[in-house]
Amino acid sequence: MIKRFNDFIESYGLFSKEDSLLLALSGGADSVALFYLLKESGYTFSVAHVNYALRGEESNEDASFVASLCERFGIQFHSKEIESDYWKKGMNTQAEARRIRYEFFDQLISEKGYSSVLTAHHKDDNTETILMNITRGSGLKGLMGLAKIQGNIVRPLLFAERTEIENYIKEKGIDFREDSSNSSDKYKRNRFRNEIIPLLKKENPLLNKAIERLVENLTNVDSSFTNSLNDFKNKYCFNEKDEVKIETSSSKGLQLYLYDVLNEFNFNRDQVANILTSINEVGKTFISGTHDLFIDRKQIVVVKKNSLIDIEIEIFEDTSAIINPVRLKFSTLLDGKIDRIKGVELFDKEKLHFPIILRPWKEGDRMQPLGMNGSKKISDILIDKKINRAAKQKIVVLTSKDEIICIPGIVLSEKVKVDANTKVFWQIVLLN
User: Fold this and answer.
1) Fold of the CATH domain 313-430
2) pLDDT tens figures, 220-261
3) CB of 4 within 8 A of CB of 10?
4) Considering the entire predicted model, what is its pTM?
5) Which CATH number fits domain 2-213: 3.40.50.10490, 3.30.2130.30, 3.40.190.150, 3.40.50.620?
6) Backbone angles phi, psi at 300, to 5 degrees
Protein backbone atom coordinates (compact mmCIF):
# COMPACT_ATOMS: atom_id res chain seq x y z
CA MET A 1 0.00 0.00 0.00
CA ILE A 2 2.73 2.46 0.99
CA LYS A 3 4.69 1.83 -2.23
CA ARG A 4 1.63 2.29 -4.42
CA PHE A 5 0.79 5.46 -2.48
CA ASN A 6 4.20 7.01 -3.12
CA ASP A 7 4.34 5.79 -6.73
CA PHE A 8 0.95 7.44 -7.37
CA ILE A 9 2.09 10.75 -5.88
CA GLU A 10 5.35 10.69 -7.86
CA SER A 11 3.79 9.55 -11.15
CA TYR A 12 1.34 12.43 -11.25
CA GLY A 13 3.50 15.02 -9.46
CA LEU A 14 0.79 15.59 -6.84
CA PHE A 15 3.09 17.19 -4.24
CA SER A 16 6.56 16.93 -2.74
CA LYS A 17 8.10 16.77 0.73
CA GLU A 18 8.99 20.46 0.41
CA ASP A 19 5.34 21.48 0.00
CA SER A 20 3.24 22.90 2.83
CA LEU A 21 0.35 20.44 3.04
CA LEU A 22 -3.00 20.59 4.83
CA LEU A 23 -4.88 17.34 5.44
CA ALA A 24 -8.69 17.41 5.73
CA LEU A 25 -9.18 14.92 8.57
CA SER A 26 -12.69 13.89 9.59
CA GLY A 27 -11.57 11.01 11.81
CA GLY A 28 -13.12 8.38 9.52
CA ALA A 29 -11.22 5.38 8.13
CA ASP A 30 -10.26 6.98 4.81
CA SER A 31 -8.81 10.24 6.14
CA VAL A 32 -7.11 8.50 9.08
CA ALA A 33 -5.50 6.04 6.65
CA LEU A 34 -4.22 9.02 4.62
CA PHE A 35 -2.87 10.55 7.86
CA TYR A 36 -0.77 7.43 8.58
CA LEU A 37 0.34 7.03 4.96
CA LEU A 38 1.64 10.59 4.97
CA LYS A 39 3.43 10.03 8.29
CA GLU A 40 4.91 6.72 7.15
CA SER A 41 6.12 8.34 3.93
CA GLY A 42 7.85 11.20 5.73
CA TYR A 43 5.63 14.09 4.63
CA THR A 44 5.19 17.16 6.82
CA PHE A 45 1.60 18.34 7.04
CA SER A 46 -1.01 20.09 9.19
CA VAL A 47 -4.60 19.04 9.84
CA ALA A 48 -7.97 20.78 9.43
CA HIS A 49 -11.17 19.47 11.02
CA VAL A 50 -14.72 20.84 11.02
CA ASN A 51 -17.15 19.89 13.78
CA TYR A 52 -20.55 20.36 12.14
CA ALA A 53 -22.44 19.48 15.36
CA LEU A 54 -24.85 17.38 13.29
CA ARG A 55 -24.59 14.21 15.40
CA GLY A 56 -24.57 15.63 18.90
CA GLU A 57 -21.97 14.13 21.23
CA GLU A 58 -20.72 11.86 18.47
CA SER A 59 -19.53 14.94 16.52
CA ASN A 60 -17.71 16.25 19.61
CA GLU A 61 -16.03 12.88 20.10
CA ASP A 62 -14.85 12.94 16.46
CA ALA A 63 -13.26 16.35 17.06
CA SER A 64 -11.60 15.15 20.28
CA PHE A 65 -10.27 12.06 18.50
CA VAL A 66 -8.69 14.14 15.71
CA ALA A 67 -7.25 16.65 18.18
CA SER A 68 -5.71 13.83 20.26
CA LEU A 69 -4.25 12.15 17.18
CA CYS A 70 -2.58 15.40 16.14
CA GLU A 71 -1.28 16.02 19.66
CA ARG A 72 0.15 12.52 19.81
CA PHE A 73 2.22 13.03 16.66
CA GLY A 74 2.94 16.75 17.11
CA ILE A 75 0.84 17.79 14.12
CA GLN A 76 -0.50 21.36 13.91
CA PHE A 77 -4.28 21.19 14.28
CA HIS A 78 -6.81 23.71 12.89
CA SER A 79 -10.45 23.33 13.89
CA LYS A 80 -13.76 25.01 13.18
CA GLU A 81 -16.93 24.41 15.15
CA ILE A 82 -20.47 25.07 13.92
CA GLU A 83 -23.22 25.75 16.42
CA SER A 84 -25.94 23.09 16.43
CA ASP A 85 -28.70 25.68 15.97
CA TYR A 86 -27.09 26.79 12.69
CA TRP A 87 -28.80 23.96 10.82
CA LYS A 88 -32.35 24.81 9.76
CA LYS A 89 -35.13 22.59 8.50
CA GLY A 90 -35.14 22.35 4.70
CA MET A 91 -31.47 23.27 4.38
CA ASN A 92 -29.36 21.18 1.99
CA THR A 93 -27.15 19.94 4.78
CA GLN A 94 -24.51 18.17 2.70
CA ALA A 95 -24.11 21.06 0.28
CA GLU A 96 -23.85 23.58 3.11
CA ALA A 97 -21.35 21.42 5.02
CA ARG A 98 -19.24 21.19 1.87
CA ARG A 99 -19.35 24.97 1.44
CA ILE A 100 -18.31 25.50 5.06
CA ARG A 101 -15.31 23.18 4.93
CA TYR A 102 -13.96 24.44 1.61
CA GLU A 103 -14.37 28.02 2.79
CA PHE A 104 -12.39 27.01 5.91
CA PHE A 105 -9.68 25.43 3.73
CA ASP A 106 -9.45 28.58 1.61
CA GLN A 107 -9.13 30.69 4.75
CA LEU A 108 -6.26 28.54 6.04
CA ILE A 109 -4.51 28.60 2.66
CA SER A 110 -4.76 32.39 2.65
CA GLU A 111 -3.66 32.87 6.26
CA LYS A 112 -1.06 30.10 6.61
CA GLY A 113 0.22 29.72 3.06
CA TYR A 114 -0.55 26.03 2.53
CA SER A 115 0.10 24.89 -1.03
CA SER A 116 -2.43 22.03 -1.16
CA VAL A 117 -5.38 20.57 0.71
CA LEU A 118 -5.33 16.77 0.75
CA THR A 119 -8.62 14.87 0.82
CA ALA A 120 -9.11 11.12 1.19
CA HIS A 121 -11.32 10.44 -1.84
CA HIS A 122 -10.66 7.00 -3.33
CA LYS A 123 -11.79 4.87 -6.29
CA ASP A 124 -15.15 3.99 -4.77
CA ASP A 125 -15.88 7.67 -4.14
CA ASN A 126 -15.07 8.33 -7.78
CA THR A 127 -17.42 5.57 -8.95
CA GLU A 128 -20.21 6.95 -6.74
CA THR A 129 -19.67 10.47 -8.08
CA ILE A 130 -19.78 9.42 -11.74
CA LEU A 131 -22.89 7.26 -11.30
CA MET A 132 -24.65 10.08 -9.42
CA ASN A 133 -23.72 12.50 -12.20
CA ILE A 134 -25.15 10.11 -14.80
CA THR A 135 -28.51 10.12 -12.99
CA ARG A 136 -28.43 13.94 -13.01
CA GLY A 137 -27.99 13.97 -16.80
CA SER A 138 -24.47 15.32 -16.50
CA GLY A 139 -22.40 16.48 -19.44
CA LEU A 140 -18.97 15.21 -20.40
CA LYS A 141 -17.19 16.92 -17.49
CA GLY A 142 -19.43 15.16 -14.97
CA LEU A 143 -18.52 11.79 -16.45
CA MET A 144 -14.83 12.48 -15.88
CA GLY A 145 -15.29 12.06 -12.14
CA LEU A 146 -12.94 13.34 -9.46
CA ALA A 147 -9.70 14.94 -10.63
CA LYS A 148 -6.43 14.04 -8.95
CA ILE A 149 -5.67 17.76 -8.72
CA GLN A 150 -8.44 20.36 -8.74
CA GLY A 151 -7.12 23.81 -7.95
CA ASN A 152 -5.67 23.57 -4.42
CA ILE A 153 -7.40 20.24 -3.75
CA VAL A 154 -5.29 17.08 -4.17
CA ARG A 155 -6.65 13.52 -3.90
CA PRO A 156 -3.72 11.14 -3.31
CA LEU A 157 -5.88 8.05 -2.58
CA LEU A 158 -7.61 7.84 -5.95
CA PHE A 159 -5.42 4.84 -6.78
CA ALA A 160 -6.99 2.73 -3.98
CA GLU A 161 -10.31 0.97 -3.45
CA ARG A 162 -12.20 1.17 -0.17
CA THR A 163 -11.40 -2.46 0.66
CA GLU A 164 -7.64 -1.78 0.26
CA ILE A 165 -7.87 1.14 2.68
CA GLU A 166 -9.83 -0.97 5.17
CA ASN A 167 -7.22 -3.73 4.93
CA TYR A 168 -4.40 -1.21 5.52
CA ILE A 169 -6.18 0.13 8.61
CA LYS A 170 -6.75 -3.40 9.91
CA GLU A 171 -3.18 -4.58 9.29
CA LYS A 172 -1.73 -1.55 11.09
CA GLY A 173 -4.20 -1.77 13.97
CA ILE A 174 -5.19 1.86 13.44
CA ASP A 175 -8.10 3.35 15.36
CA PHE A 176 -10.64 5.55 13.59
CA ARG A 177 -14.10 6.98 14.09
CA GLU A 178 -17.17 5.39 12.53
CA ASP A 179 -19.70 7.96 11.25
CA SER A 180 -23.14 6.55 12.10
CA SER A 181 -24.75 8.70 9.38
CA ASN A 182 -22.93 6.62 6.72
CA SER A 183 -25.43 3.80 7.25
CA SER A 184 -28.43 6.09 6.77
CA ASP A 185 -30.08 6.24 3.36
CA LYS A 186 -31.24 9.80 4.01
CA TYR A 187 -28.48 11.13 1.73
CA LYS A 188 -28.29 10.34 -1.97
CA ARG A 189 -24.61 9.33 -1.85
CA ASN A 190 -25.37 6.82 0.89
CA ARG A 191 -28.16 5.28 -1.17
CA PHE A 192 -25.72 4.81 -4.05
CA ARG A 193 -23.06 3.43 -1.70
CA ASN A 194 -25.31 1.09 0.28
CA GLU A 195 -27.91 -0.02 -2.27
CA ILE A 196 -27.21 0.78 -5.92
CA ILE A 197 -23.49 0.10 -6.24
CA PRO A 198 -23.63 -3.30 -4.45
CA LEU A 199 -26.23 -4.37 -7.05
CA LEU A 200 -24.02 -3.14 -9.90
CA LYS A 201 -21.05 -4.98 -8.43
CA LYS A 202 -23.07 -8.19 -8.53
CA GLU A 203 -23.27 -7.66 -12.29
CA ASN A 204 -19.60 -6.70 -12.51
CA PRO A 205 -17.36 -7.20 -9.46
CA LEU A 206 -14.75 -5.06 -11.23
CA LEU A 207 -17.09 -2.05 -11.43
CA ASN A 208 -14.42 0.40 -10.28
CA LYS A 209 -12.08 -0.82 -12.99
CA ALA A 210 -14.82 -0.52 -15.61
CA ILE A 211 -15.52 3.06 -14.52
CA GLU A 212 -11.80 3.78 -14.63
CA ARG A 213 -11.64 2.59 -18.26
CA LEU A 214 -14.66 4.75 -19.08
CA VAL A 215 -12.84 7.81 -17.72
CA GLU A 216 -9.68 6.93 -19.67
CA ASN A 217 -11.69 6.67 -22.90
CA LEU A 218 -13.50 9.93 -22.22
CA THR A 219 -10.28 11.78 -21.42
CA ASN A 220 -9.25 11.80 -25.08
CA VAL A 221 -12.75 12.84 -26.13
CA ASP A 222 -12.74 15.64 -23.57
CA SER A 223 -9.35 16.88 -24.72
CA SER A 224 -10.47 16.97 -28.34
CA PHE A 225 -13.75 18.68 -27.43
CA THR A 226 -11.97 21.29 -25.30
CA ASN A 227 -9.65 22.17 -28.18
CA SER A 228 -12.53 22.55 -30.63
CA LEU A 229 -14.56 24.52 -28.06
CA ASN A 230 -11.66 26.96 -27.67
CA ASP A 231 -11.49 27.32 -31.46
CA PHE A 232 -15.22 28.10 -31.49
CA LYS A 233 -14.82 30.72 -28.74
CA ASN A 234 -11.88 32.37 -30.49
CA LYS A 235 -13.79 32.59 -33.77
CA TYR A 236 -17.33 33.43 -32.69
CA CYS A 237 -17.27 34.80 -29.11
CA PHE A 238 -16.19 38.35 -28.32
CA ASN A 239 -15.74 40.21 -25.02
CA GLU A 240 -16.72 43.87 -25.17
CA LYS A 241 -16.44 45.61 -21.80
CA ASP A 242 -19.08 43.90 -19.63
CA GLU A 243 -20.70 42.02 -22.52
CA VAL A 244 -20.03 38.74 -24.26
CA LYS A 245 -21.31 38.54 -27.82
CA ILE A 246 -21.74 35.23 -29.62
CA GLU A 247 -22.24 35.28 -33.38
CA THR A 248 -25.14 33.12 -34.49
CA SER A 249 -25.62 33.68 -38.21
CA SER A 250 -22.33 32.33 -39.53
CA SER A 251 -21.12 30.17 -36.65
CA LYS A 252 -20.94 26.43 -37.12
CA GLY A 253 -21.45 24.09 -34.21
CA LEU A 254 -23.66 26.43 -32.18
CA GLN A 255 -25.79 23.52 -30.98
CA LEU A 256 -22.70 21.56 -29.97
CA TYR A 257 -20.88 24.30 -28.07
CA LEU A 258 -23.47 26.79 -26.82
CA TYR A 259 -24.16 25.02 -23.51
CA ASP A 260 -20.46 24.95 -22.62
CA VAL A 261 -20.14 28.65 -23.51
CA LEU A 262 -23.19 29.71 -21.51
CA ASN A 263 -22.77 27.34 -18.57
CA GLU A 264 -20.11 29.64 -17.09
CA PHE A 265 -22.81 32.33 -16.93
CA ASN A 266 -25.08 29.90 -15.01
CA PHE A 267 -27.53 29.06 -17.82
CA ASN A 268 -28.74 25.46 -17.58
CA ARG A 269 -29.32 22.90 -20.32
CA ASP A 270 -33.07 23.51 -20.56
CA GLN A 271 -32.49 27.24 -20.98
CA VAL A 272 -29.84 26.64 -23.66
CA ALA A 273 -32.25 24.35 -25.54
CA ASN A 274 -34.87 27.15 -25.46
CA ILE A 275 -32.28 29.71 -26.57
CA LEU A 276 -31.40 27.56 -29.58
CA THR A 277 -35.04 27.25 -30.63
CA SER A 278 -35.48 31.03 -30.21
CA ILE A 279 -32.34 32.03 -32.06
CA ASN A 280 -34.25 34.09 -34.68
CA GLU A 281 -36.57 35.83 -32.19
CA VAL A 282 -34.83 39.20 -31.89
CA GLY A 283 -35.37 40.79 -28.48
CA LYS A 284 -36.15 37.59 -26.60
CA THR A 285 -34.62 37.55 -23.12
CA PHE A 286 -33.36 34.76 -20.86
CA ILE A 287 -32.23 35.14 -17.26
CA SER A 288 -29.81 33.14 -15.10
CA GLY A 289 -28.91 33.77 -11.47
CA THR A 290 -26.10 36.13 -12.48
CA HIS A 291 -26.62 37.20 -16.10
CA ASP A 292 -29.18 38.35 -18.64
CA LEU A 293 -29.12 37.08 -22.21
CA PHE A 294 -30.64 38.82 -25.23
CA ILE A 295 -31.25 37.51 -28.71
CA ASP A 296 -30.04 40.29 -31.01
CA ARG A 297 -29.58 40.51 -34.76
CA LYS A 298 -27.09 37.78 -35.69
CA GLN A 299 -25.85 37.69 -32.09
CA ILE A 300 -26.49 36.41 -28.61
CA VAL A 301 -25.55 39.08 -26.06
CA VAL A 302 -24.78 38.10 -22.45
CA VAL A 303 -24.45 40.78 -19.75
CA LYS A 304 -24.16 40.75 -15.98
CA LYS A 305 -27.42 41.40 -14.18
CA ASN A 306 -28.20 45.08 -13.93
CA SER A 307 -26.36 46.40 -10.89
CA LEU A 308 -27.68 49.94 -11.36
CA ILE A 309 -31.19 49.36 -10.08
CA ASP A 310 -30.82 51.21 -6.77
CA ILE A 311 -27.99 53.56 -7.66
CA GLU A 312 -28.58 57.29 -7.13
CA ILE A 313 -25.58 59.62 -7.09
CA GLU A 314 -25.60 63.32 -6.16
CA ILE A 315 -23.39 65.59 -8.27
CA PHE A 316 -22.61 68.95 -6.67
CA GLU A 317 -21.21 72.10 -8.21
CA ASP A 318 -17.72 71.24 -6.99
CA THR A 319 -17.85 67.57 -8.07
CA SER A 320 -15.04 67.10 -10.57
CA ALA A 321 -15.68 63.51 -11.65
CA ILE A 322 -17.38 60.18 -10.93
CA ILE A 323 -16.10 56.77 -12.02
CA ASN A 324 -19.00 54.46 -11.20
CA PRO A 325 -21.37 53.41 -12.76
CA VAL A 326 -20.10 55.60 -15.64
CA ARG A 327 -16.98 57.72 -15.91
CA LEU A 328 -17.94 61.38 -16.16
CA LYS A 329 -15.79 64.50 -15.77
CA PHE A 330 -17.39 67.84 -14.86
CA SER A 331 -16.12 71.40 -15.26
CA THR A 332 -17.46 74.97 -15.09
CA LEU A 333 -16.44 77.31 -17.93
CA LEU A 334 -16.85 81.03 -18.42
CA ASP A 335 -17.04 80.58 -22.16
CA GLY A 336 -18.00 77.58 -24.19
CA LYS A 337 -17.89 76.44 -27.76
CA ILE A 338 -20.47 74.00 -29.05
CA ASP A 339 -18.50 71.55 -31.20
CA ARG A 340 -20.91 68.60 -30.93
CA ILE A 341 -18.05 66.29 -30.00
CA LYS A 342 -19.28 62.80 -29.15
CA GLY A 343 -19.31 62.27 -25.40
CA VAL A 344 -19.13 65.99 -24.59
CA GLU A 345 -22.22 67.91 -23.48
CA LEU A 346 -22.43 71.65 -22.71
CA PHE A 347 -25.15 73.09 -20.44
CA ASP A 348 -26.27 76.58 -19.45
CA LYS A 349 -25.29 76.30 -15.78
CA GLU A 350 -27.82 78.93 -14.65
CA LYS A 351 -30.62 76.66 -15.89
CA LEU A 352 -29.47 73.83 -13.60
CA HIS A 353 -30.43 73.10 -9.98
CA PHE A 354 -27.75 71.32 -7.95
CA PRO A 355 -27.25 68.69 -6.83
CA ILE A 356 -27.75 66.99 -10.16
CA ILE A 357 -28.89 63.39 -9.65
CA LEU A 358 -27.51 60.50 -11.70
CA ARG A 359 -29.73 57.42 -11.75
CA PRO A 360 -30.68 54.54 -14.09
CA TRP A 361 -33.46 55.27 -16.55
CA LYS A 362 -36.87 53.72 -15.93
CA GLU A 363 -39.79 52.73 -18.10
CA GLY A 364 -42.06 55.75 -18.44
CA ASP A 365 -39.23 58.30 -18.18
CA ARG A 366 -39.56 61.23 -20.57
CA MET A 367 -37.47 64.22 -21.59
CA GLN A 368 -37.47 67.01 -24.18
CA PRO A 369 -34.58 66.22 -26.54
CA LEU A 370 -32.57 69.07 -28.02
CA GLY A 371 -34.41 70.62 -30.97
CA MET A 372 -37.85 69.19 -30.08
CA ASN A 373 -40.93 71.09 -28.92
CA GLY A 374 -42.49 68.28 -26.90
CA SER A 375 -41.28 65.45 -24.71
CA LYS A 376 -40.38 61.94 -25.76
CA LYS A 377 -40.11 58.63 -23.94
CA ILE A 378 -36.55 57.60 -23.07
CA SER A 379 -37.36 54.11 -24.36
CA ASP A 380 -38.25 55.60 -27.79
CA ILE A 381 -35.08 57.69 -27.83
CA LEU A 382 -33.00 54.58 -27.19
CA ILE A 383 -34.79 52.73 -29.98
CA ASP A 384 -34.17 55.65 -32.38
CA LYS A 385 -30.48 55.60 -31.42
CA LYS A 386 -30.39 51.82 -32.06
CA ILE A 387 -29.26 51.03 -28.51
CA ASN A 388 -29.53 47.26 -28.10
CA ARG A 389 -31.27 45.64 -25.14
CA ALA A 390 -28.05 44.72 -23.41
CA ALA A 391 -26.71 48.28 -23.60
CA LYS A 392 -30.05 49.69 -22.42
CA GLN A 393 -29.49 48.10 -19.02
CA LYS A 394 -26.48 50.35 -18.44
CA ILE A 395 -28.09 53.63 -19.51
CA VAL A 396 -28.19 56.34 -16.86
CA VAL A 397 -29.79 59.78 -16.88
CA LEU A 398 -28.98 63.09 -15.22
CA THR A 399 -31.85 64.90 -13.55
CA SER A 400 -32.26 68.44 -12.22
CA LYS A 401 -35.21 68.98 -9.92
CA ASP A 402 -36.58 65.56 -11.00
CA GLU A 403 -36.48 66.57 -14.66
CA ILE A 404 -34.24 64.60 -17.02
CA ILE A 405 -31.67 66.93 -18.55
CA CYS A 406 -29.33 64.50 -20.26
CA ILE A 407 -28.59 60.91 -21.27
CA PRO A 408 -24.78 61.10 -21.16
CA GLY A 409 -23.24 60.44 -24.55
CA ILE A 410 -26.65 60.25 -26.24
CA VAL A 411 -28.88 63.31 -25.94
CA LEU A 412 -29.19 66.68 -24.15
CA SER A 413 -32.42 68.34 -23.01
CA GLU A 414 -33.74 71.39 -24.87
CA LYS A 415 -34.47 72.98 -21.46
CA VAL A 416 -30.81 73.35 -20.43
CA LYS A 417 -29.22 74.11 -23.78
CA VAL A 418 -26.67 76.85 -24.30
CA ASP A 419 -27.96 79.97 -26.08
CA ALA A 420 -26.88 83.56 -26.79
CA ASN A 421 -27.66 84.58 -23.21
CA THR A 422 -25.55 81.89 -21.55
CA LYS A 423 -22.92 83.38 -19.22
CA VAL A 424 -21.66 80.31 -17.33
CA PHE A 425 -21.24 76.91 -18.94
CA TRP A 426 -21.24 73.48 -17.30
CA GLN A 427 -19.49 70.76 -19.30
CA ILE A 428 -19.60 67.01 -18.84
CA VAL A 429 -17.29 64.60 -20.66
CA LEU A 430 -18.15 60.91 -20.96
CA LEU A 431 -14.89 58.98 -20.60
CA ASN A 432 -14.32 55.52 -22.04
Assistant:
1) Phenylalanyl-tRNA Synthetase; Chain B, domain 3 (3.50.40)
2) 888 899 999 999 999 999 987 678 899 987 667 898 999 999
3) no
4) 0.65
5) 3.40.50.620
6) -105, 130
